[in-house]
Every structure is written in C-alpha cells, then in structure tokens.
Amino acid sequence: MDIEARLTPTPTVKCNGTPPTPEQQEGPYYKPDTPHKPNFRADVDGGTPLLLHGSVVTSDGKPVGKALLDFWQVGDEGEYDEEGFRLRGHLFADDEGKWQLETVLPAVYPGRTRHVHVKVQPPGGEVLTTMLYFPQERRNHLDKYYRPECLMDVTHSPEGWNASFTFVLDI
After folding, report:
1. CATH number, residue 54
2. What are the helix (H) ranges across the chain?
3. Residue 87 in domain
4. Per the domain annotation, does 44 fall within a domain?
5. 5-31: per-residue pLDDT in tens?
6. CA pair distance 86, 78, nearest whole angstrom
7. What's the mean pLDDT in 87-116?
C-alpha cells in the first residue's frame, strides 16, 4: 500500500487521553544552541512539505504561553546533520500556547519509524524531551521507542502533509 493511501485523517490523539506527554530519549543526535528557526524548508532541496503545529497546555488545559520548542529531525535522505543546523531549530509558542513549524517529511531509516524530536520548556520550567510519531506507519510497532501517546493528528493533501499535536505539561 502506498503511503498516501495509508494516511487518512485520524481521530484526535493527545497523549492518548492520559496526560502528561511522556518523556522520551534525547538520542545521540541532539545539538544544543540551535538557531531560532520556525521554518526548516529552506534547509533542503525538495522533500514533501510538512506543517507541524499545535499547542502547549498544562494538565488542566491552561495554555502555556511563550514555551520554547526545540526540534530536530532527518530529511528524506534519513540522516541527521551533525555539522550544522540543517533541519534543526527552535521557536516559541505564542501567548495562547500555539506553535507552528514548517518543515519536510522525515524519512524512515534503519531501526526507526518516521518521527520528529522535540524539547518543550515552559518559561522557567523543566524541559520535556519527547518524539512525535505519524499514525498508520507500518514500522511504528517495530520501533522500540515508539509511543502511541505521541501520535500526531495527520492529514495529507497534494500540497503536503499537515500534522498537529498538543503537548500536555505536568506543571
């Protein structure tokens, strides 16, 4: 089955209804001091456009304004940039906790399903490190780090992919 046929709108999954968003491994490819960069698309030639967006809220649903979100991922070649900041950067949620990142669809690479890494930090608070996953990926169940609570809501169109996620922080 081709990837477009597998991607249909999914029901809303926000931490599988059991906040807070789970902590996950940082992995070996994290780099600190990323640039402020809410758009990764210029980092690569081509690739399938992906709009990631969502909210940061407390466990009782209150928005977490000005939260820092630091993202890193692979492109369609399946390799992390270890020399610079290609497909790496941070942004801030607005006053209502809303955030948005323009990027490209990450590849599946050996041992891993399709995913995006992120660190989320409320102003003056603790950092949550986690990963976001795509629903209906055939390799999800094979990835030892996969967490269904971290599935994004995803839709697909000829213009690209649209994925949303609400981070629930235990603060």
Report:
1. 2.60.130.10
2. 3-6
3. yes
4. yes
5. 444 444 444 453 457 999 999 999 999
6. 13
7. 97
Q: State the Cα–Cα distance between residues 97 and 68, nearest whole angstrom.
A: 10
Which tokens in the block code for residue 102? Answer: 């323009």
The label of the residue with tokens 């981070």 reads 167
The residue count of the chain comes to 171
Tokens of 140: 């999800």
Residue where the block lists tokens 């930090």: 121
For 33, 93, 99, 130, 149, the CA distances from 69, given in Å and listed in that order, are 12, 7, 8, 11, 18
Residue 167 · residue 158 · CB < 8 Å:
no
Q: Residue 112 contacts by C-beta under 8 Å, 6 or more apart in sequence?
A: 139, 143, 145
In a domain, 7, yes or no: no
Pair of tokens at residue 144: 């030892």
Q: What is the pLDDT of residues 102-116, one digit of tens each?
A: 999 999 999 999 999
Domain of residue 70, residue span: 37-169
159 within a domain of the structure (yes/no):
yes
Is residue 75 a contact partner of residue 84, using CB atoms and an 8 Å limit? Answer: no
Number of structural domains found in the chain: 1
